[in-house]
Amino acid sequence: MHGGLVVGVSFAYLGLLFAIAYYGEKRAAEGRSLTNNPYIYTLSIAVYCTSWTFYGSVGLAAKSGLDYLPIYLGPTLVFILWSFVLVKIIRICKVHRITSIADFISSRYGKNFALGSLVTIIAVIGTTPYISLQLKSIATSFNLLVEFQNAGVPAYGAPFGIDTTLLVAIVLALFAILFGTRHIEASEHHEGLVAAIAFESLIKLFAFLAVGLFVTFSVFDGFGDLFFKAQAHGLSHLFTVSEDNDYSQWVTMTLLSMAAILFLPRQFYITAVENRDESQLRTAAWLFPLYLLVINIFVLPIAIGGKTAFAGMSSDADMYVLSVPIYFDQGKLALFAFIGGLSAATSMVIVASIALSTMVCNNLVMPLLLRWKWVDVTEGGDLSALLLTIRRASILIILLLGYGYFRIASESYSLVTIGLVSFTAAAQFAPAIIGGIFWKGGSSKGALTGLSLGFLIWTYTLLLPSFAQSGWLPINFISEGLFGISFLKPYALFGLNGFDSLSHALFWSMVANIGGYVVVSMWRELSPIDRIQGQLFVDVFDNALDQTERRNWQGTVTITALQELIGRFVGPGRAETNFKAFAKTNNSSLKGDDIADRQILNHAESLLSGAIGSATARVIIGSMIKGKNVSFNEVFQMLDETTQVIEYSRMLEVKSTELEETSLKLQQANKRLQEFDALKDEFLTTISHELRTPLTSIRAFSEILQEGTQVSTEERQNFLNIITKESERLTRLIDQILDLAKMEAGRMDWVITSLNPTSAVKDAIAIMDGLIQENNISLSLDIDKDLPNVQADRDKLVQVIINIVSNAIKFCANPGGIIQVSAHKQENALLVSITDNGRGILPEHQDYIFEKFHQAQENSKKMAAGTGLGLAICQQIITFFGGIIWADNAKNGGACISFSIPFAPQEDSADL
Amino acid sequence: MGYSVLVAEDEPNIVLSLQFIMKKAGLQVRIAEDGDQAILEIEKDRPNAILLDIMLPKRDGFSVCEVIKSNPEWSAIKVIMLTAKGREEDKQRALGLGADDYITKPFSTRELVDRVIELIQEGESANDPGTAPK
């Protein structure tokens, strides 16, 4: 077949793909999405079926029969039985705007940069053999188609004078760049890409079925004939599980393919990141396994067809899909088969390189640029161009790496073996992700340890031996171990024999990976950010709504500045549209000069996450807010502080309860103060009243006397008497107020001596005698003989007794008032009681009787001299003397006011 | 002049001075020592005016004022509140209850008597001039 024709058809096919992609994007821009459809989604997941499936399965089936099946059994099991894992991963990706598997893992473990970059490195290195596998298949199939000689021996060569594989790598790189790096925001869906990938899945399926149908019904006469002739050729062992392999390899391959469908970077990207609607998974759960089943129906027939056709000849079983039609001279079918193989290979390369380039850019290069301050986010300039350049360069480098691996190692390996090396690398992500979404205890240190150990063992037991077998490393590295230490044989590490190399590598890498992850996670205390992210991921279905509430930025940046920043990563137009949409959905007006609030900052962060990954977005928003480049450490410190705030909130709750109690006490105190204030007000009014009342009389009689008319001598005398008495009353009141104020302020001049209480009591009674006579009161005295001295101010003590007796006069029965005054010795104190025969003290007044405001609440001021201050003054005086004063009711029902004062020490009384 | 005035006041010296000066001015004076007694005195014989102390025992001056002014037969009685409390809110309360005047102690006895007579005469000319005072 002419090389130009094949190249022309290939480019026409690629052009068609591009047209589909373009159409898909146009439809998406118009809002009529092509890919928001469960069938398209399922077909895009079929990117799982690469040239390995297309060519390699037949090769494996030709060698060892049904051994190719586990590669499809694993994904089928995952989709049918484990779709809840997928749903959870998809939901997390949506909520956290995850852009890649590296972003997922780094985001889960505290937006950890080291982890994100490690995952990226593992993914790139792990995917490299896989990409080289695709390049190899395209180059081989191309050469086969162009230069196939009838003998059926494919000749490798360079039809254009340069290496076909390198050319293929470069063309595919350009194609992937055109496809995948037109916009920057990775978490926005690449509708065109998905449409093209889905189309490719159809093409490879149809091509494979076409070859299968041809072999089964044209070369053979249906399945029955096929199996019959196979038996005749001694190929019946292909229908059973090969006996030279134990089942361990089946189990290994099933497990590996289960991990692969979930964690191969491109599968993760297509299944989780590009997913439009979780419900589409329901269709995929049955349709994808069905797709796998259909594409596998003719694997064995084609293998048998190739075996019988090339019986006795040397042939590459990996190329049967192509060589069998050629052998039977079916040029068009062969070309179709080639295109099918091309579609299988290109879809994988495109998706894988786009997914990887996103990871390289967001999780490796940008963080490093920011860390080394080669990029200053606080300065101006459009960074979206930089991001695109980084991604494009990474795509090219990734494909060149694939080519490099092809040159180094691929020649000596079958397609399937290369693929399984990649699968084992992808499986290293399983513990960190599965653990991360179901176990809150997983820590970033644990994940870092597990991944590192697993990756090291993968490198040692699979990658390096592949170099050794290709002659790039000494071959005795495999047979004798590193430095000749047999314990370190890469296929029998630590003396573990009996496994095939794949099971062996999987076993040891998983032991180290899971072990490291679990032990370190449990050994070291979780950092707060790990705890937060762990909770957000594990409980994604519970708190998807409030998760933005938990990441608190506090802003000092204006809306305009923020929009400019975002614009530099995603393009100014897109940023503006997005901000407007945000304002609209949130019913807020985003004014340029306003300070960005938490809500818009979180929105901006997630927008930026979509473009450059969550860890980097965090740093950039953080640096914007602080107005300088902040380091990752600073950002995590900020996060830790936030977490600590959350942790302290519980303590705050306790404090808040205490505060409530204090507040209650304060309220009570305040109420008491208000009551006090009201009492004081009342007291002042009372004082005013008490002052004005005698003044009124004095003024009235003075006026009467002044006018001098018609006042008899007797009346004049009486009036003058009243004026004098009222003046005295006024003086007394003023004295009392001043006394009380002095005593309360501690400025009273006391003259303390040791004095005889008997004489003091008698003196007081003598002073009151006039009033007592006036009111016809009979007063009885009962004083013990030889009362010891007390330490007191004589005038004040007399005043106390006068005040109490005045009260008694005021309240005792009228007529027939009786007052009893007693003074007794009671142990070491003087006890004085003054009892009247009035109504007594009402129980509700008992507590207040000594308060100076108390009288304000009493109406009685009948007997004059009632200032409401008498008893209050008494209490001040007695307390100063070290005694106590109290009130109760006597047996006769009258009031009894008593006080006691300690006797003076003996020597003092002797002195005086 | 045959105007009658009821003095509702519990401070004996003030009662004495008011009684003295109003008698000299030709007014008939009756005394009530507390609020309840004031009401009884009015029921007994309606006076032209009442000098009403606010801080009365048993029933305070506000209450007495309210009783007088809410009774149509008594509302013509001139109520002059006397108080030793200088508080503005008390004054407003008294006037709100319909008191005709509010006088703070200490007051000039001469002015007080003039004011009482003035109020009574005002009330007479405003009402039915034909009705002779008792």
Task: Kindly describe this structure.
With 912 residues, chain A is mostly helical. Chain A folds into 5 domains: 3-374 and 381-406, Sodium/glucose cotransporter; 428-538, no CATH class; 545-630, no CATH class; 638-738, Helix Hairpins (Orthogonal Bundle), CATH 1.10.287.130; 750-911, Heat Shock Protein 90. Helix content of chain A is 68%, strand content 5%. In chain A, the strands form 2 sheets. In chain A, strands 2-4-5-7-6 form a 5-stranded mixed β-sheet. In chain A, strands 1-3 form a two-stranded antiparallel sheet. In chain A, helix 8 runs antiparallel to helix 17 (384-408), helix 9 (191-219) packs parallel to helix 13 (280-297) and helix 16 crosses helix 17. Mean pLDDT of chain A is 79; it is low at 149-161, 543-552, 627-631, 856-865 and 908-912. Chain B is α/β, with parallel strands linked by helices. Chain B has one domain: Response regulator (Rossmann fold), CATH 3.40.50. In chain B, 45% of the residues lie in helices and 19% in strands. The longest helix of chain B has 18 residues, at 109-126. The model of chain B is unreliable at 129-134 (pLDDT under 50). Chains A and B meet through helix 30 and helix 31 of A and helix 1 of B.
